Amino acid sequence: MWVEELDSPAARARLARADVLVTSWGAPALTTERLDAAPGLRAVLHCAGSVRGLVADEVWRRGIVVSSAAEENAVPVAEYTLAAIIMAGKKAPYLAARARHDRDGWAATVVRRDLSNRGRTVGVVGFSRIGRRVVELLRVLDTAAVLVSDPYADPAEVAAAGGRLVPLDDALRRSDILSLHAPSLPATRHMIGARELALLPDGATLINTARGALVDHDALLAECATERLHAILDVTEPEPLPATSPCGTCPTS
Predict the structure, then answer these.
(1) What sections of 29-113 are H helices per DSSP?
(2) Of 28, 131, 150, 118, whose CA–CA distance to 78 is shortest?
(3) pTM above 0.85, yes or no
(4) Of 8, 72, 115, 180, which residue is 20 to 30 A from 50 by alpha carbon distance?
């Protein structure tokens, strides 16, 4: 039985008979009150990634089994990230935008660019499920280096995947392309702000396929507006962005 919420009388009647709850993105949090309405609940099968916003401590206290599709979800996200890195190295999204807005002068931009992925340095922030897969997939490219920044990662595991563990500032200063794969936590909110963006080399591209809250969008927009940096954003804050957001019309994002 499919429901959109868990608080109406109709939804509570279904919860009262539920043994297994199948959830996905946007599912309401399983609070104590909602769990009380499902006394027979034995398992939660989450058909998406993290269960952090879904599962409260009470779920574990009641011994309810929880599964997640995070491992499977990591595969298409990592593949998309690899594609974004390749397109960023070729400057394809920005040249396409330039051609739409400047039909006559865009070719002059092309000759000033290094349109290749060969010899690029790629930074990966967060050696998560997805971050690890991205590092492994980058072996198909002839990169100069894959720099990983994660305070909790094992240097040996990073090396085995094909990367090198470095401090965040080091990765920022050296990365032609920076890809974010950190979790959204109070400590990581706006972890990439004006100071961090200023450390990126001119012409670098920021890719975010993790969580919008990791990036200070105002600071990023300021850099993109000057065309010093480029961005490929699969996630934003808020999400979706309002139709009036300048991020939607900025030629380098």
Answers:
(1) 32-36, 57-61, 70-89, 92-101, 106-110
(2) 131
(3) yes
(4) 8
The answer to whether the CB of 41 falls within 8 A of the CB of 70 is no
Angle at 27 between CA 26 and CA 28, to 5 degrees: 115
Q: Which fold has domain 72-248?
A: Rossmann fold (3.40.50)
Tokens of 244: 């009036």
Contacts of 176 (CB under 8 A, 6+ apart): 89, 120, 121, 122, 201, 203, 204, 205
At 99, the amino acid letter reads A
Provide the token pair at 61.
């206290």
CATH topology for 9-68 is Rossmann fold (3.40.50)
- pLDDT at residue 8, rounded to an integer: 95
| Domain extents in the chain | 9-68, 72-248
Place of tokens 């399983």: 30
Please tell me the predicted confidence (pLDDT) of residue 103: 64
Fold: same for 9-68 and 72-248: yes
The predicted structure's pLDDT at residue 251 = 59
Q: What are phi and psi of 54, to 5 degrees?
A: -100, -45
Amino acid 99: pLDDT: 72
Q: How many CB atoms lie within 10 A of CB 31?
A: 14
The pLDDT score that the predictor gives to residue 246 is 81
β-bridge mates for residue 157, sequence order = none
Determine the distance from the C-alpha atom of residue 130 to the mean position of all C-alpha atoms in its chain, rounded to a whole number. 9
Is residue 218 within 8 Å of residue 190, measured between CB atoms? no
Q: What is the mean pLDDT of each run of 10 residues along the chain (253 residues)?
A: 90 95 94 96 94 92 96 96 96 79 61 77 97 98 96 97 98 98 95 98 96 96 94 92 78 60
